[in-house]
Amino acid sequence: MSIKISDKPYESRVEEGLENDFMRQAVASAQGRFRDGRQAQADELGNWEDWRTLGAEIRTHTIENLDYYLQQLSDNVSKRGGNVFFAQTAEEANAYIQSIIKEKNAKKVVKSKSMVTEEIGLNQALADVGADVVESDLGEWILQLDDDQPSHIVTPALHKNKEQIRKTFAEKRGYTKSDKPEELGLFAREQLRKEFLSADIGITGCNFAVAESGAVTFVTNEGNARMVTSLPDTQITVMGMERIVPTWEELDVLVSLLTRAAVGQKLTSYVTSITGTKLAGESDGPEEYHLVIVDNGRSKILGTEFQSALHCIRCAACINVCPVYRQVGGHAYGSIYPGPIGAVLTPLLDGYEDHKELPYASSLCGACTEVCPVKIPLHEQLIRHRQIIVEQEHKTPVAERAMMKGFAKWASTPAAYKISAAAARPALKPWSKHEKITNGPGPLKNWTNTRNFPAPSKQTFRSWFKERAKGGASK
Amino acid sequence: MTIANRDRFLDNLAANLGRNRRTEGVERPKWSVQPQYDVFAGYSPDQLVDELEKICTVIHTDLKQTNQAELPEILKETITSYGGKQVVAASGNRNKQYGLDVLYDSLAKDGVHVHLWNETKGKENQVVAEKADVGITFSDVTLAESGTVVLFHDQYNGRSISLLPRTYIAIIPKSTIVARMTQATKQIHEAAVAGHDVSSCVSFITGPSNSADIEMKLIVGVHGPVKATYIVVEDA
């Protein structure tokens, strides 16, 4: 997989989402839970706006000085016995990790949930060199068994119900018990325990690296990242280059914002910071440590008006309040990053060509901007994307461009305008009802699929204006 | 150890940021607000314990309070309630200081085997921890706001002790309780500035492990412990 998760056109992805009743109900209820949880935490603090201000200041300063902090981080990781590899592209990152797999002759790799490794398509790269990859986050493991894609960045299997999960476990792993979540969870615990203990290499993503000491921090509830970093002898951390804070003091603030904004918890069950290799006398932790720092298109965003998109801490608060995500679900975005932040970030990382519809998957209500814990102006960036798509990229749909061209020609030819304006009402009569068109023909259809179009008025503006000049118009 | 492709990578960042590479002299600005210091500001140790007790009900964790004299008895009771036959515990000075060495020796006659983490035994420690019913460690710093025990793992306190056994018991000296994560990370930051090495692993542990990945229903106990108890001990 890479950042793009579907070859189907946007319209059919949206349609599939709209037709999936279970998924839509699950998304609606999850959004409610997440949103209420976040709001309760914000209310309890009482000064949430100050926290957001601080979060935004920290992210702004860090990204503006990213080269400095990444240098400091890499020096400190190196001092603590770790190797650091800077990867410009997904291919470079994957090739480096493949070389470690081969050198270690590793058979089994156990992973904890990580968006960046999804983004670079690492699992495929690992499979290509013959490694057996096991995802250890419960949601990710379910998706892996089912060969499915994540639909939410915090709860990736949100679109699946427990009966589907029971069936997957039964078919793929011989599970014989009920569809109770506790029993399903216990089964996953037993199955995955064996995998942790027999893995040669552990691979994680990274929530925040700490430049001043070379630590990398993982935020989980299940404890899988602790397993992955404690048991295998070789550990590889893959981090998006912007996932860094200057010191432990800023780590506190951003972790506090992340767990509250993401899941409404003061802290998740486990926040784990590891630094380099294990020290003398320690039995747990890696003997060999690698940190892979990934650019993969991020640096193109630096210095542009979209720079603050790199402030994102992947909490999904914007996704959890988005009315569009609520209706269409995560897969409709066709990107591993769905929702408002996905619609901003995906075209930046992967180009407009395949993702030109995403900036339109928004009602511009601004709820995303309002909840973002680091104050990214998400809906404003979506508008900017739209402007660029129309003005510079010329990537509006062909039909729309043809229509606009036609409109320009027609509206600038007085005779044509006059005749057709008068003819519009009778022509559209068969589709009009109570002065509204609800199921329009031809090019109107795309519009009226989702909303009504007003029927042309009884009197044209020109005839009204003429009458008014004669003093005959009513107003 | 090796650092590969750094200059090419960071030069490109600086170029995109429209300036020369910054390799020194960057200072954190003075942030305009510091709301993290407002939480439980001025609370007494007893008030912090009250807050810790409140949050424990939210994080599915039992909280017990005792003094040093009664700690061994309370601990024994908790081990028994968890059906503990195999126990793995952190080693180090505090066991003696709190009278736990005597307790651990005496448990053998009740059929409870206690393995003290042993830095000379390498992976054998993990094997024992994986089979254990109960893991026991002291808390190094305790966060009242979130109900979190902070562990600075080292050769005496392996990462597995609080992770692999079915249940987990944290002994919390009352003096380790602070308001929130801010005070713990400040301490680590100051140690780093003073040139001390940070632990190879710092764990912030908040109750038992859990997941809501199946239909958003809470499952307590996924990869880590299924149950957790905190025992707060008067140590002043």
The CATH class label of the largest domain in chain A is Alpha Beta
CATH topology annotation of the largest domain in chain A: Rossmann fold
CATH architecture of the largest domain in chain A: 3-Layer(aba) Sandwich
Report strand order across the widest sheet of chain B: 2-13-8-5-3-4
CATH superfamily of chain B: NagB/RpiA/CoA transferase-like
Cα distance, first to last residue of chain B? Answer: 45 Å
* Oligomeric assembly: heterodimer
Helix count of chain B? 7
Largest sheet entry of chain B = 6 strands, parallel
- pLDDT averaged residue by residue of chain A: 91
Helix content of chain A: 40-55%
Compact description:
The complex is a heterodimer of chains A (475) and B (236). Chain A has 475 residues and is α/β, with parallel strands linked by helices.
Overview of the structural elements:
The complex is a heterodimer of chains A (475) and B (236). Chain A contains 21 helices and 13 strands. With 475 residues, chain A is an alpha/beta fold. In chain A, the strands form 3 sheets. A 6-stranded parallel beta sheet of chain A has the order 1-10-7-4-2-3, with helices on both faces. In chain A, strands 8-5-6-9 form a 4-stranded mixed beta sheet, with helices on both faces. Chain A has a 3-stranded antiparallel beta sheet with strand order 11-12-13, with no helix packed on it. In chain A, helix 3 packs across helix 12. With 236 residues, chain B is an alpha/beta fold. Chain B has helices at 6-16, 45-58, 71-81, 93-97, 100-107, 124-131, 181-193; strands at 3-4, 61-67, 86-89, 113-116, 134-138, 141-143, 148-152, 167-173, 177-178, 201-205, 210-211, 219-220, 227-234. In chain B, strand 6 (141-143) and strand 7 form a beta hairpin. Chain B is globular and about 70 Å long. Strand 9 of chain A pairs antiparallel with strand 10 (201-205) of chain B.
